[in-house]
């Protein structure tokens, strides 16, 4: 997910990099006013929480205390030097959309559910060692597996034992340097999910954990503590089912034109001289953007707002073939990042980090009609999981999309990303660049003091 990352650092870097006092003052004023959330529409529509095709009931299974579930097994080696997230595997050329939809419609349902029996729980990690081949086969077939009722994964220690028993190799988040996620337990390669109190009211739409450049092969999302006051369902949807569901004409339009996603906004005073605007653009492009490990282009006023500088990803296909199975799937983050959808649902992202999705050939934002078709087809196939302590959703990141509903109270979910463990060429030979750490931590700290509550900013 890309919502606030580049803009946070580019904002601060731009204001501090100028030695002349006047530009610095102008930019500081601009930034403070642009950080409040704003809609792209003069009369914002009513915000409605998205629906889901399936909503399993809660079972109220107990968990451990934070002191218990956060305990790491210090006898195990430190996984902090994990692999870099692998490069995205693109195979999107020459796709016949109608034939792709026919193929995708035959895919088995997602997620596949495995519920622990008493005997399974008594086996502990041995259950996953014994059933490794079956589990990996079902993951490839269905795109996601929901492990329910397992006691082993109620703690950081047990969660690590689970993925080690399955032979999965951890890697960094695709946007580790962005600071969007901090580690829950670095030595166990475990990131905290978006549990921040400041983002409780933000609905995270469907997305693959990917950029045009990097994509994790798999992920294991674990629940240690469900939201104490309600909500917080974890969302999962099958990229094959969405592809088959979408209106063919809309899908062909998006595939032929491709899409580009802006990941941040930096509002520069429109009256600023062109030479200064260009200087700001070049500064961000050269000094800041490369640190985010994404292929970005700095573009002015793509969304029509005067003076707005946006960091925009390269063009990508909304359809991709699965690297292993060849199955065509809906593989993109439009449901999460399209501004016309964000403006219509609970949103807690500051204006500086509001994203947009463009047709790549004209750099025009997606039409409302196309956005609403993406919404319809996507949400029809969402399963809003009632994940409780010990539950894990194991995801094939090229097949299944995920998200998160709003919640109240305190919630603690975490995630480990995995690289290709059976293909060294796809995995690459990059190990973690530890120097990214300070950058990650600085940006993550800034997330908490930016305004997040849309409704309070509007009233």
Automatic annotation (TrEMBL):
Alphabetically ordered keywords of this record: Oxidoreductase, Signal
Q: What are the protein's GO molecular function terms?
A: oxidoreductase activity
Tell me which Pfam families the record gives. TauD
Q: InterPro entries this protein is in? A: AlphaKG_dependent_hydroxylases, TauD-like_sf, TauD/TfdA-like
Q: Where is this region: Disordered?
A: 37-71
Q: Which domain of life is it from?
A: Eukaryota
Where does the signal sequence lie? 1-17
Which residue numbers delimit the TauD/TfdA-like domain? 129-412
Q: What is the official name of this protein in its record?
A: TauD/TfdA-like domain-containing protein
| Annotated source species | Cyclotella atomus
Q: Provide the organism lineage as a comma list.
A: Eukaryota, Sar, Stramenopiles, Ochrophyta, Bacillariophyta
């Amino acid at each position: 997910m890309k919502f606030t990352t580049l803009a946070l650092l580019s904002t601060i870097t731009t204001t501090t990099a100028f030695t002349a006092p006047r530009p610095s003052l102008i930019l500081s004023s601009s930034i403070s006013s642009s950080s409040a959330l704003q809609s792209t529409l003069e009369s914002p529509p009513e915000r409605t929480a998205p629906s889901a095709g399936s909503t399993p009931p809660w079972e109220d299974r107990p968990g451990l205390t934070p002191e218990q579930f956060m305990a790491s097994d210090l006898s195990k080696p430190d996984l902090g030097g994990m692999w870099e997230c692998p490069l995205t595997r693109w195979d999107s050329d020459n796709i016949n959309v109608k034939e792709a939809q026919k193929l995708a419609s035959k895919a088995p349902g997602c997620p596949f559910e495995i519920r622990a029996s008493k005997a399974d729980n008594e086996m502990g990690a041995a259950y996953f060692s014994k059933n490794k081949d079956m589990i990996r086969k079902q993951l490839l077939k269905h795109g996601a597996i929901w492990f329910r009722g397992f006691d082993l994964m109620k703690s950081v220690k047990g969660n690590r034992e689970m993925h080690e028993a399955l032979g999965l190799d951890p890697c960094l988040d695709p946007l580790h340097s962005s600071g969007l996620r901090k580690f829950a337990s670095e030595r166990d390669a475990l990131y905290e999910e978006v549990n921040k109190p400041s983002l409780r009211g933000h609905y995270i739409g469907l997305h693959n954990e990917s950029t045009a450049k990097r994509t994790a092969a798999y992920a294991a999302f674990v629940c240690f503590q469900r939201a104490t006051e309600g909500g917080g369902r974890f969302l999962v949807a099958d990229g094959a089912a969405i592809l088959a569901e979408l209106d063919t004409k809309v899908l062909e339009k998006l595939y032929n034109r491709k899409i580009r996603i802006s990941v941040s906004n930096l509002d520069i005073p429109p009256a600023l001289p062109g030479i200064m605007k260009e200087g700001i653009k070049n500064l961000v492009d050269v000094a800041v953007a490369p640190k985010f490990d994404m292929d970005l282009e700095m573009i002015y006023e793509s969304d029509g707002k005067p003076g707005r500088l946006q960091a925009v990803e390269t063009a990508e296909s909304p359809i991709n073939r699965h690297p292993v199975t060849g199955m065509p799937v809906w593989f993109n983050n439009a449901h999460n990042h399209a501004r016309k959808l964000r403006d219509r649902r609970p949103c807690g992202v500051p204006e500086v980090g509001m994203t947009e999705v463009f047709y790549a050939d004209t750099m025009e934002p997606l039409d409302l009609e196309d956005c609403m078709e993406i919404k319809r087809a996507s949400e029809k196939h969402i399963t809003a999981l009632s994940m409780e302590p010990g539950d894990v959703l194991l995801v094939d990141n090229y097949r299944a999309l995920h998200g998160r509903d709003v919640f109240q109270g305190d919630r603690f979910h975490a995630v480990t990303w995995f690289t290709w463990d059976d293909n060294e060429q796809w995995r690459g030979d990059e190990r973690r660049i530890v120097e990214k750490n300070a950058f990650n931590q600085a940006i993550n700290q800034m997330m908490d003091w930016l305004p997040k509550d849309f409704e309070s900013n509007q009233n």
